[in-house]
Amino acid sequence: MPAEKLGRRRGRRGTAETAEAEFEARQTEREKDLSEWIPRTALGKSVAAGKITSIEEIFEKNIPILEPEIVDTLLNLEEKVIDSQKTTRMTMAGRKFSFRSAVLVGNRNGYIGLGTAKDTEKWPAVKKAKRRARLNVVKINRGCGSWECTCGTQHSVPFKVSGKSSSVKVTLLPAPKGTGLVVGDTIKDVFRFAGITDVWSNCFGSKDTRLNFYRAAIDALEKTTEMKASNEIMKKDEKKK
Fold it and tell me: What does the pLDDT read at residue 88?
């Protein structure tokens, strides 16, 4: 076998082994954090005691989540650092440097979150962003909204939705099964983490600021839940009449 091909195979195997090792390290860290967790809120105590076993119960009752360990207990989340930049600000004493990090989390089954944080060092900023991403987790409604597809599975968005962040606007349209993610490469992880495999999109505005691009995509996905909630309220009002 040529040395070049052998090197490629070893490189691929090494990449897979590295990814598996990172996943095991994250799981170990997660289990350690949960074992050391001491709940401070009523919701946290209920989750730790096993009285609440689903995050859907929390969203239905509209209870604010103030401890990231609650989300870690109820959901098995994946995480990815999507942005980390060194920032500068001018003070009377001169320039002060800090790091801004953004982390994306999701369970690939309808839940996703984005968190940003700053610190004087990079990894403390990443750790803060991870915690905030868990506190910002939102539920996404998926469906099969394309008239070309009648599979009835939850593989796309249920209807056309639009999201905005600053000058960036993202419009998502339902796509038939097998289409794939017809979106910008920058935000494909948003849909993978949310559990959407097929979608069409239109993007407007300056996408040089990657963070606004992510926020606009998540804003659009979040509106799938808001529209469903408003429809349920209208149905309840009709029944009362």
Answer: 86
Give the 3-state secondary structure of the chain. CCHHHHHHHHHHHHHHHHHHHHHHHHHHHHHHHHHCCCCCCHHHHHHHHCCCCCHHHHHHHCCCCCCHHHHHHHCCCEEEEEEEEEEEEEECCEEEEEEEEEEEEECCCCEEEEEEEEECCHHHHHHHHHHHHHHCCEECCCECCCCCCCCCCCCECCCCEEEEECCEEEEEEECCCCCCEECCHHHHHHHHHHCCCCEEEEEECCCCCHHHHHHHHHHHHHHHHHHHHHHHHHHHHHHHC
Domain, as residue range, for 177:
161-240
Q: Is residue 230 part of a domain?
A: yes
pLDDT digits (tens, 9 = 90+) for 213-222: 999 999 999 9
Residues 97 and 167 grouped into a single domain: no
- Work out how many domains the chain is built from and give that number: 2
Q: Is residue 151 part of a domain?
A: no
Same domain, 83 and 173: no
Give pLDDT, residue 24: 62
Q: Are residues 64 and 183 in the same domain?
A: no
Whole-prediction pTM value? Answer: 0.79
